[in-house]
Specification:
The complex is a heterodimer of chains A (410) and B (238). Chain A has 410 residues and is α/β, with parallel strands linked by helices. Chain A has helices at residues 16-36, 51-56, 63-72, 76-85, 94-105, 128-140, 159-180, 186-208, 219-232, 236-255, 279-287, 297-300, 309-317, 325-338, 353-370, 389-406, and strands spanning 41-44, 59-61, 118-122, 144-147, 266-271, 291-295, 343-349, 374-379. In chain A, the strands form two sheets. Chain A has a four-stranded parallel β-sheet, sandwiched between helices. A four-stranded parallel β-sheet of chain A has the order 6-5-7-8, sandwiched between helices. In chain A, helix 15 links the parallel strand 7 and strand 8. Chain A is globular and about 65 Å long. Chain A starts with 15 loop residues before the first helix and ends with a helix. Chain B has 238 residues and is α/β, with parallel strands linked by helices. Chain B has a domain at 66-215: ATPase, nucleotide binding domain (Nucleotidyltransferase, domain 5, 2-Layer Sandwich). In chain B, strand 6 (184-187), helix 7 (194-204) and strand 7 (208-209) form a beta-alpha-beta unit. The longest helix of chain B has 23 residues, at 156-178. The chains are: A alpha/beta (410), B alpha/beta (238).
Chain lengths: 410, 238
């Protein structure tokens, strides 16, 4: 009998996966190093303009990313329970509950991050964020800088909205300069803007390669790579890694390879934040049926393309959770058509009332316009108590059977 | 057709298969294809294939009623509304969210509080003068609502009619989202409850067909699908 153990081959340090993984990990290491050097570090909401702390040379950590990591590694329920014991409702965002618990206990085996000296909050992703950060500011007795980007009921971003938000960007820069002693320079901003643009363009180009059949990648890859888009898109290394990712996908198109390791029988769009505690179950449920999730608006959401400061302000006013239903629908319809999507799988994410709330009507409109079936399942981005694998399986199988019958099978 | 209650998971399915074969005086080798459906379908080893109960209910109902375009299936664990296209193929569906309200389990719980068999609910609902309002969407909260309504003097009949209306209202919401197209058929165990059927007809303003065999439609669909598989292979056991 052979005692041979199959060894996992070491990751290729030149691969995009390795580079992107390193950037995501280094973000926490760098922030801790800055803290150890006596510098001020911040906690930052995911759609806050990363260009501001990056230009100022400030290290920040992203509680949403940390919460997703904790949830994916099985710690979500434990931390949610701590917050709930403190009186936070089970109904509020699980990222908020996890982070508020972390701010209290300050140590988890899943993922640590340095204690903050200031908070950067932007409500273009949701309004729960404001109360979450206000409570952090009160509990930790530290300043909170907020940029208010209200939900836009109109299709386009108006000049008035840009002016309103731009004034707040300027004020946030001024507050941070006073607080940290760091200085904003136009040269540095231009450099950050250039890297952010390069990163975003490469990311959007890479994700758009799903237009090929079969797709050169498994859409679940995007959920992991996105951490870099959220936290590090203004960095040189991020731009370079994303360009490598695009190159790899192009090579896959050429050679007919894909990171989706199964026969691609069906192509769907996934709507909503990943169900991190059940990433394997949700991904296997699709892969075992030959379903590749080729696109998601969530990935598109973090590609910021602009040419100047005003353009940057406008880009942050135009993020998916801040735009009106018609605009949000049209963006999804474009992704569905560009990527030959056959079905829509919607994660009714109990944490995200805003996103899940408008999906019922938006799914109906998308389904009608694109003539594709849509199916929703209950879950949560980080609280494992809101998901049932059997219910998920039935819905996915139903979706598969409709897609098969539309192709003339079954 | 006969309904056998034989436990849950694959143990129940195995017992049922054993009983069916015995009654039909057949053995396993006589069966060309076993199609599993329902929760646990993926774990039933003797099955040659598995199909969701969504497709099975659609197949079963359409086999008997080809003109049906909307199927409302209220079963024990979930409630579903299926939209059928003009070719007789399921083109979309909507299922209840995580809550048990609007499912057969909700009626089970309520029958239990009222200490009567579930098939009594229909008869007693018919005697209601003014259905009570059971507004809670949570089964446990609805349970306390029922208890408090009874405690404040509401008649059992009015409470039962209110329970039926509550299930109908939840499922009607799903049906409206899928889009109602006539004819509408109700499958699943709850179809046998006239109180829920009538409340649904009132909510949706369409007549709802059903049959004594509504609860069997999923099993019938699975059997048809197994037959189609064997036919496709071209080898039917004589």
């Amino acid at each position: 009998m052979s005692n041979e153990v199959k060894k996992k081959s070491p990751p290729d340090p030149n691969s995009a996966k390795f580079k992107l993984g390193k950037i995501a990990t280094d973000a926490y290491v760098d922030a801790q190093a800055a803290k150890d050097r006596g510098e001020m570090v911040g906690w930052c909401s995911s759609n806050f303009p990363v260009e501001i702390p990056e230009t100022l040379g400030l290290a920040v950590c992203y509680p949403e990313n940390q919460a997703a990591g904790i949830a994916a590694r099985g710690g979500g329920e434990r931390l949610c329970n701590i917050s709930e014991d403190d009186g936070y409702s089970n109904d509020i965002c699980a990222y908020a509950r996890i982070n508020l618990a972390y701010a209290k206990i300050k140590d988890t085996p899943e993922q640590n991050m340095p204690e903050p000296d200031f908070l950067l909050c932007c409500n273009n992703i949701c309004n729960c964020m404001i109360k979450w950060y206000e409570n952090l500011a009160k509990d930790l007795n530290i300043p909170m800088i907020i940029i208010d980007i209200p939900f836009n009921p109109d299709y386009e971003v108006s000049d008035a909205q840009v002016a309103y938000v731009k004034a707040q960007f300027m004020e946030a820069i001024k507050q941070l300069e006073e607080l940290t002693g760091k200085k904003w320079t136009e040269e540095k901003f231009k450099e950050v803007m250039e890297y952010s643009g390069r990163t975003s363009r490469a990311w959007l180009a890479a994700t758009s390669e799903a237009k090929h059949t079969p797709s050169p990648f498994n859409g679940f890859d995007l959920l992991n790579h996105m951490a870099v888009m959220v936290t590090a898109r203004g960095k040189k290394e991020a731009a370079e890694a994303m360009e490598v990712l695009h190159k790899e996908y192009l090579e896959n198109v050429e050679t007919g390879n894909s990171t989706f390791r199964a026969e691609e029988k069906h192509r769907i769009m996934f709507e909503g934040i990943a169900c991190w505690p059940y990433l394997r179950a949700t991904s296997t449920g699709l892969k075992s049926r030959g379903i590749n999730m080729v696109t998601t608006i969530y990935a598109d959401a973090f590609g910021f393309i602009y040419d100047d400061f005003d353009g940057m302000v406008k880009a942050y006013c135009n993020v998916p959770n801040a735009m009106n239903l018609e605009h949000a629908r049209d963006k999804r319809v474009k992704l569905i058509k560009d990527n030959h999507v056959e079905g829509l799988l919607v994660h009714t994410n109990r944490s995200c009332k805003l996103w899940s709330g408008f999906m019922a009507e938006m799914s109906r409109q998308i389904s009608e316009e694109c003539d594709i079936p849509h199916v929703a399942f209950d879950g949560d981005q980080a609280d494992p108590r809101n998901f049932s694998e059997a219910q998920y399986e039935t819905r996915v199988q139903g979706l598969t059977e409709i897609m098969e019958s539309k192709k003339g099978g079954c | 057709m006969e309904l056998l209650v034989a436990g849950i998971g694959t143990v129940g399915a195995e017992k049922i298969m054993e009983t069916v074969l015995k009654k039909a005086q057949l053995t396993g080798v006589d069966i060309d294809f076993v199609m599993a459906t329902g929760y646990g379908r993926r774990n039933f080893d003797p099955a040659h294939g598995e199909l969701s109960e969504l497709s099975c209910h659609a197949k079963g109902v359409l086999f008997k009623n080809p003109q049906v375009r909307t199927i409302i299936d209220i079963g024990g664990q979930d409630a579903k509304v299926l939209r059928i296209n003009d070719k007789g193929v399921m083109e979309n569906f909507m299922m209840n969210d995580k809550c048990a309200a609007g499912t057969g389990r909700f009626l089970d719980v309520m029958a239990n509080i009222l200490q009567m068999p579930i098939n009594e609910l229909e008869k007693r609902a018919e005697l209601a003068e003014k259905p009570a309002k059971i507004s809670s969407t949570c089964t446990v909260f609805a349970e306390s609502e029922v208890i408090s309504q009874l405690a404040t003097g509401e008649t059992v009949e009015n409470v039962i009619a209110g329970i039926c209306n509550s299930v109908a209202s939840r499922v009607a919401g799903l049906a409206k989202r899928v889009g109602i197209k006539e004819e509408v058929f109700m499958s699943g165990g709850v179809a046998q409850n006239g109180g829920v059927r009538q409340a649904l007809e009132k909510e949706l303003k369409v007549p709802i067909k059903w049959s004594e065999a509504s609860q069997m439609m999923g099993a019938l669909g699975a059997a048809i699908s197994a037959y189609e598989q064997v036919k496709k292979r071209g080898v039917l056991n004589e």
